[in-house]
Automatic annotation (TrEMBL):
A Gene Ontology molecular function term of the record: chloride channel activity
Organism, as annotated: Drechslerella dactyloides
Location in or out of the cell: Membrane
UniProt name for this protein: Uncharacterized protein
Keywords: Ion transport, Membrane, Transmembrane, Transmembrane helix, Transport
Native organism taxonomy: Eukaryota, Fungi, Dikarya, Ascomycota, Pezizomycotina
InterPro entries: YneE/VCCN1/2-like (IPR044669)
UniProt keyword Transmembrane helix, yes or no: yes
Protein origin, superkingdom: Eukaryota
Coiled coil: none
Topology versus the membrane: Multi-pass membrane protein
Any GO CC annotation of this UniProt entry: membrane
Chain ranges passing through the membrane: 28-54, 60-82
């Protein structure tokens, strides 16, 4: 059995802390897409009720052959599969980018602490500052992906602002992202180590490549955020779903009568729920319950790196495991 931890442990914030009290099949509010699809479900339920009422009570024959429904259902299924697979690919790609960026920050931090130019007290201060800048880049990327420009007030988010070098305010109002601006501090430190001989040319090149990989990962997340599903596909998806759900009552009313009402409601719930999931996860960098937990991942990375940094400042490198 895993050992219980009273204070903290790796992934303390980003891992699940408590068991679910209710089975997921009984959850209708937190984390679900029901609120966004309730409108279409109510509409198609009322529409089916009207169709059945006219067919049964007023003896107006509205039934049509059901042979068209299977062909249309295949088209709807293919569209939904493509929609959700594309959205989840974006979600998973974003999560991989976050993981790669955190790994890059870990690698650079470790290398700077153990191999950087740390001969004098001033050098060690520079190393401490650049490691904090690396962690600050994680916060800056998160904020940029949420259209949250500039640094927050120190009282609002001290964990973030305490990592940024004094005087840095960002030039985002000029079109320069703060993550890119902070990367200059890291590159400058690598050049300093290269000039002093702490980093040989191959090592400096490797460190720069690691920094480039962090910036590339951020660029890929920007691509996900700024490239929504094409509107032509979204329009056709909505139209096909509407056509199918509007046609369905006419194809089953003769066989199912009033049972058609709950059946259409159930089918609309299923189809629009799948489509709603695709919309929910196509941009995974926000604050919704189904988005990537970037805040918690960054808090865990910050805790991890700053604990190692504190040990390094006290000269306890030999205790690193």
């Amino acid at each position: 059995m895993p050992v219980a931890r009273s204070e903290s442990f790796p992934w303390f914030h980003s891992s699940r802390q408590k068991p679910r009290r209710w089975p997921l099949a009984l959850r209708f509010i937190k984390g679900s897409v029901h609120a966004s699809i309730i409108g279409p479900i109510i509409f198609y339920t009322l529409f089916t009720t009207l169709v059945v009422f006219l067919d049964e009570r007023l003896n107006i024959s509205l039934g049509v052959p059901s042979t068209v429904t299977p062909s249309l259902s295949i088209v709807v299924g293919l569209l939904l599969v493509f929609r959700n697979s594309s959205s989840y690919e974006r979600f998973w790609g974003g999560r991989q980018d976050v993981g790669h960026i955190v790994s890059g920050v870990r690698n650079l931090s470790r290398y700077f602490m153990l191999c950087g130019p740390n001969d004098s007290a001033e050098d060690r201060e520079d190393t401490e500052k650049v490691i904090k800048v690396l962690v600050a880049m994680l916060y800056a990327m998160r904020s940029s992906l949420r259209w949250d420009w500039g640094l927050p007030h120190p009282e609002e988010e001290p964990d973030y602002t305490s990592l940024v070098p004094p005087g840095v305010q960002g030039h985002e109002n000029w079109g320069v992202g703060l993550p890119l601006e902070l990367s200059f501090f890291v590159e400058k430190y690598i050049r300093k180590g290269n000039k002093r001989g702490n980093f040989q040319a191959p090592q400096a090149s490797m460190l720069t490549s690691q920094l480039n990989a962090i910036v590339d990962g951020y660029g890929h997340m920007e691509t996900i955020m700024l490239t929504p599903i094409p509107v032509c596909y979204q329009i056709h998806m909505k139209q096909v779903l509407s056509l199918y759900c509007l046609f369905l009552p006419f194809s089953i009313v003769d066989d199912w009568s009033w049972v058609s009402v709950p059946m259409v409601a159930l089918i609309a719930f299923t189809l629009y729920g799948i489509e709603g999931i695709g919309q929910e996860i196509e941009n995974p960098f926000g604050l919704d319950r189904n988005d990537i937990k970037m805040d918690n991942i960054i808090r865990d990375a910050r805790q991890e790196i700053l604990v190692l940094l504190e040990c390094w400042k006290q000269g306890k490198e030999e205790h690193f495991i």
